[in-house]
Amino acid sequence: MLYKVPLVLSPQSEGGFTVTSPLLPELVTEGETVEEALANVRDALAAVVEAYEDLGRHLPLNMQVADAENALWLETVVTAP
């Protein structure tokens, strides 16, 4: 299944990043680099999906990408100098 999940990467004072999602408050992970933090999101999302299934809860409908075969969804925030 392909999901569209908004993520917030927060830099930590000791280094690294914490990743959370305003849509899924249960999704929390971290990493030493942005790349590592984003790579850890897959495992964190799988755990949240499993927990929702175990509890009989439904994920928000706007998270599911209907046409996973032909869709690519990308949003990013870029700051200009």
UniProtKB/TrEMBL annotation:
Residues 6-70 form the HicB-like antitoxin of toxin-antitoxin system domain. It comes from the Bacteria. It comes from Stenomitos frigidus ULC18. Pfam families: HicB_lk_antitox. This is Toxin-antitoxin system, antitoxin component, HicB family protein.
